[in-house]
Amino acid sequence: MDETLQRVKVHLDRKLHKNAGDSFGMLHVVQQISGEGFIPDILDSLLRHEEDLISVAANSYTHNNGFDKITLLSSSKPSYKLRLHIWWPGSTYMNEHIHNHSWDFSSAILTGAFRFQLFENSHHGLLLHKYLCAFPDEGVGYKMTYLGKFYLKCIFDSQFSKGNAYTLSHHVFHKIVNQEDQTTSTIILHGEFINDTSFLFSEKLIQQPHNIESVPFSPEKLYSKIKDYLKHLDDKA
Fold first, then answer.
1. Which of 87, 116, 195, 226 is the most exposed place for a label (fewest CB within 10 A)?
2. CATH number of the domain to which 141 belongs
């Protein structure tokens, strides 16, 4: 591992060892990382070191909700993953499914803006198709089981933009609606897995939901995406 990545990993290991299981401690770490140039340094390092680029590419892909999911660093002790999410302008999927996660996480918006919504179970509101999501035995992606139709209601709806940060528990249902005309990106830090499964809600039935495969980026494709993203950061500077 390149010394830049190693330096960031040591920093995260130390901070998260102190804040294990503390979502607001994780939020503080994310705010620090997003504001001190860590992310451009990591991305520059990946462009210079092929071995690290290959490793990151193998765990990165375009998510079905329409954003690029790039796993920059991961650790088992303490347990965490640091990911960069990028919504590019003109993405064909701006309005993601309502969902929760198997872990608590904290996030900070690096560029752009999006509409952020929270939901809870209800006896009225949006009638949606509910799926149980689990991880496949191998590879990346997830497998889904249809559970029927259930109601959710929106309990929070606001616009988040560059500089905003938040933390969210694993059981909270949420979704993001990206703005089509801009490059929006976030840094995500999630802790240890609390559950093996999560839930997803869709307005329409999902065709062939049993096994949703995700195709990892090739090193060449990830290299190109990182170059484009760093150019965007330079243009905004």
1. 195
2. 2.60.120.10
- Total domains present in the chain: 1
CA-based max dimension of the chain: 54
In degrees to the nearest 10, what's the CA dihedral of 57, 145, 155, 81? -30
- Give CA–CA dist 87/67, Å, rounded: 5
The Cα–Cα gap between 81 and 96 comes to: 22
Residue 95, strand partner residues: 177
**pTM metric for this prediction:** 0.91
**Residues of the domain holding 117:** 3-236
Extract the tokens encoding 148. 């029927």
CA 212 to chain centre: 17
Name residues whose C-beta falls within 8 Å of residue 71's C-beta, 6 or more positions apart in sequence.
56, 59, 60, 81, 82, 83
DSSP assignments along 121-149, one per residue: EEEEEEEEEEEEEE--SSSSEEEEEEEEE
Inter-residue contact 145 to 136 (CB < 8 Å): no
Torsion sign, CA atoms 27, 32, 35, 39? negative
**Spans of the chain, pLDDT less than 70:** 19-21, 91-95, 136-141, 208-212, 237
